[in-house]
Amino acid sequence: MARLKATAAKFGLALGDLKMTYNSRLAQEVGLWAQTKCHGHQFHMEAFKAYFVEGKNIAQKDVLLNLIESSGLDCKEGKKVIEKREFSDAVDSDWELSKAKGVTAVPSFFIGLDRLVGAQPYEALEKLIIKYDIRHI
């Protein structure tokens, strides 16, 4: 936990004292839906804060609905996404791709034959981008 807190502090991220771990599967589904609504970043930041700072159970529907609302998304539509599990197949597909690529930690960055695994400093990402000269893509 101390190492995780030190890494989080290095990147300017708040991190609370995690006492429990919760299943994030449903939150991943909502996150994919949020991306289709151009609110993915907002939702992911709200979910991060709820889970890692406040210790909330992001597997609970009411917690997710609060995150949806605080992310600027439509709660009625979000409730439907949760109840019908509309993005379950998409998350399954992402998991299969991750497994096939050998992802062992998040975040993981793949460019060409290179990869960076885990939280990395800006300079490491910049070096990878410059190596493949993808700055203008």
CATH topology of the largest domain: Glutaredoxin
* CATH architecture call of the largest domain: 3-Layer(aba) Sandwich
Summing up helix and strand content along with how strands pair, one would put the structural category as: mainly alpha
- Percentage of residues in strands: 5-15%
Q: In this structure, how is the largest beta sheet organized?
A: 2 strands, antiparallel
What does the radius of gyration come to? 16 Å
Portion of residues within helices: 55-70%
Number of helices: 7
> So, the CATH homologous superfamily of the largest domain?
Glutaredoxin
Order of helices and strands: HHHHHHEEH
Poorly predicted regions are none
Quaternary assembly? single chain
First CA to last CA: what distance? 38 Å
Task: Set out the fold topology.
Blueprint: H1 2-10, H2 25-36, H3 40-53, H4 61-70, H5 75-84, H6 88-101, E1 108-111, E2 114-117, H7 122-131
Antiparallel strand pairs: 1-2
